[in-house]
């Protein structure tokens, strides 16, 4: 009730958020109870050059994006520091030692979390032309999505952990139904 109450006015102007609220309302109306909840969040920070302090500028609760790119960014930082180390001042060198760059294994941790959630409760299923139901992980994307490289990295990391898990991409405009257990049911023709 809290989310619906506070986000309804925003949802009136944001079709994506409105579709999320519609799903929430249907789940509440049908009295579907969750046995487990998965939340993947990303915090974005910016560095204030005046006081050299990192400030949180965003807390994103609806995306797993940049997991793949963020994992590669660590390698890129190492490369840049080593390539241009002779052009840095002594103060800069002390600040940007490669040993100060934390490892970023986000893509593998996100994939591991999704695989564990899949086996805990496969909440989305696809139905082939023969009406066979196949559990899957659904990646919700924007229509005409341009961020497919990061999505492919996540799909690859899931595949590396368990090649039997099917990952599909859908937009919120794609039609689905909820079964009696509250699982999302997609009918697809490309199987």
Please tell me about this protein's structure.
The chain is of the alpha/beta class and 191 residues long. The protein has 6 helices and 7 strands; from the N terminus they run ααββαααββαβββ. It has helices at 2-11, 15-29, 67-83, 90-95, 106-120, 148-161; strands at 42-48, 53-60, 124-127, 133-140, 166-170, 177-178, 184-187. It has a 5-stranded mixed sheet, with helices on one face. It has a two-stranded antiparallel ribbon with strand order 1-2. A hairpin with a 5-residue loop joins β6 (177-178) and β7. α1 (2-11) runs antiparallel to α2, α3 runs antiparallel to α5 and α5 (106-120) crosses α6. The chain is globular and about 65 Å long.
Strand content: 15-25%
Question: What's the story with the biggest beta sheet?
Answer: 5 strands, mixed
Radius of gyration: 21 Å
Q: Which structural class do you get from the secondary structure elements?
A: alpha/beta
Number of strands: 7
Helix content: 40-55%
Number of helices: 6
The strand line-up of the biggest sheet is 5-4-3-7-6
How confident is the prediction overall: mean pLDDT? 80
Q: Give me the strand/helix succession.
A: HHEEHHHEEHEEE
């Amino acid at each position: 009730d809290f989310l619906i109450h506070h986000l309804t006015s925003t949802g009136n102007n944001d079709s994506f958020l409105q579709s999320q609220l519609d799903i929430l309302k249907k789940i509440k109306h049908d009295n579907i109870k969750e046995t487990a909840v998965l939340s993947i969040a990303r915090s974005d920070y910016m560095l204030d050059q005046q006081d050299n302090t990192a400030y949180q500028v965003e807390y994103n609760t609806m995306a797993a994006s940049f997991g793949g790119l963020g994992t590669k960014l660590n390698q890129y930082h190492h490369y840049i520091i080593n390539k241009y180390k002779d052009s840095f001042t002594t103060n800069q060198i002390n600040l940007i030692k490669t040993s100060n760059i934390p490892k970023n294994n986000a893509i593998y941790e996100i994939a591991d979390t999704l695989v564990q959630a899949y086996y805990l409760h496969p909440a989305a299923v696809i139905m082939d032309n023969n009406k066979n139901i196949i559990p899957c992980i659904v990646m919700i994307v924007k229509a005409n999505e341009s961020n497919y490289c990061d999505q492919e990295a996540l799909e690859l990391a899931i595949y590396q952990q368990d090649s039997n898990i099917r990952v599909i991409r859908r937009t919120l405009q794609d039609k689905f139904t909820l079964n009696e257990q509250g699982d999302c049911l997609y009918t697809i023709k490309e199987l």
